[in-house]
Amino acid sequence: MQKFGGSSLADAAGIIRAAERIAQTREKGHHVVAVVSAMGDTTDELSDLAAELSPHPHPGDLDALLSIGELVSSALLAIALTRLGHAARTFTGRAAGLITDSIHGKARITDVRPDRIRESMADGEVPIVAGFQGITEEEERVTTLGRGGSDLTAVALAAALGADTCEIYTDVDGVYTADPRIVPTARKISVLSSEEMLEFAASGCKVLHLRCVEYARRFGIPIHVRSSFVQETGTFILPGLDRHPFRKPVREQAVVSRVAGTNSAAKIKVVGLPDEPDSMARIFQMLSRSGVHVRTIVQNTPRPGAKRSDLAFVLPALQAPPALAVLRAAQETIGFQGLQHDGHVGRVSVTGLGMRSSPEVFSTFLSALSDAGIEFDVVDISETCVGAITRTDRLADAERAVRVAFGMSVAGKEAVTGAGIDARNAAVALG
């Protein structure tokens, strides 16, 4: 399975490079199924054009429009591949068997039926699938999968076809310990677990979308993120890497792979929530139905005899307005006293393995923020991530302080805690 992103197909030269990649793989004796994104900024341009015609286009019509970009890419790639002497056949999401629910703009895959893809491969062809799209089963309406949808298409087809790996070709040559455009000393990571990549994606790393990684992890699909512009090996994302021989620790230890900062967040506080068992559940049921994705939740414990408490949660900044609208509409029904909104918050995080079981990681993280004078009010911890919410105007300082504390600010520098750099995985091992 090979997927080519929009930046890889931005012009004729990029399309030819992609065709040559496929041809080289075929000539080595491998079967290839290609999945493509729309060329360059085509999707954004189509979306902007629709907005000029109507401020609120019908979601189904918008999906039908946005799905066209991938069809153009697939046809052009087929033309280039045929010229190289390899038969190709193009497939829409529908023809490829991508069945989804009916939520336009962010549809979820409910089934994959790649019978036609298998027939094409049996005929010696290279199937080229338009990514980012599917079709509803009952009404047979075109849907789009949302951000990262072509990556998700590739992984879903790889799982359904039993592919050995899913190669994601993009304009970067792998996943780094930090954004190399911001941190020149950032190191490329050769191997990651899917669990770590989940936290990377949740922390703002844009190389792969969260849903794509979740799907790959669920079905055990290895992903190879690599550049379409160079021949170098990229980053392998492997399911269950905590038990994989690439990482056989000498002793039980935490491995810190990345420090990240995300400034596109907001915090909403529900003040005076009735202390009733279903109050919080009702709030998040309504938010979920409106498509709001909450990242972190904190509820204070009511004082003895008190009948109300406060509930705070963090969510993507762009989802704050619809969340506030939903909550205001439900205020009288649920009975809380008021709302507070802070749109100037960010999240700094450390990602790796064994975060929850390593007190040293947690204490080093908090000490770094405290020593730098960074105020934070929400801290969350999981097996693969420790994060804290702070002000956006201090986010860069927070990220810098944490990176220094874990020895990731300068290539080859030892961590201040005495931990060493794992050269194979480009990560900091804390023992």
Structure report:
β7 (133-136) and β8 (142-144) form a beta hairpin. α7 (149-161) packs parallel to α9. The protein has an eight-stranded mixed sheet with strand order 3-6-2-1-9-13-14-12, sandwiched between helices. The chain contains 13 helices and 22 strands. It has two domains: 2-171, Carbamate kinase, CATH 3.40.1160.10; 242-431, VC0802-like. The protein is α/β, with parallel strands linked by helices and 431 residues long.
Summarize the structure.
The chain has about 425 residues and is an alpha/beta fold. It has helices spanning about 10-25, 40-55, 60-65, 70-85, 95, 115-120, 150-160, 195-200, 210-220, 280-290, 320-335, 360-370, 395-405; strands at about 1-5, 35, 90, 100, 110, 125-130, 135, 140-145, 165-170, 175, 190, 190-195, 225, 235-240, 255-275, 295-300, 310-315, 340-355, 380, 385-390, 420, 425-430. The protein is built from 13 helices and 22 strands.
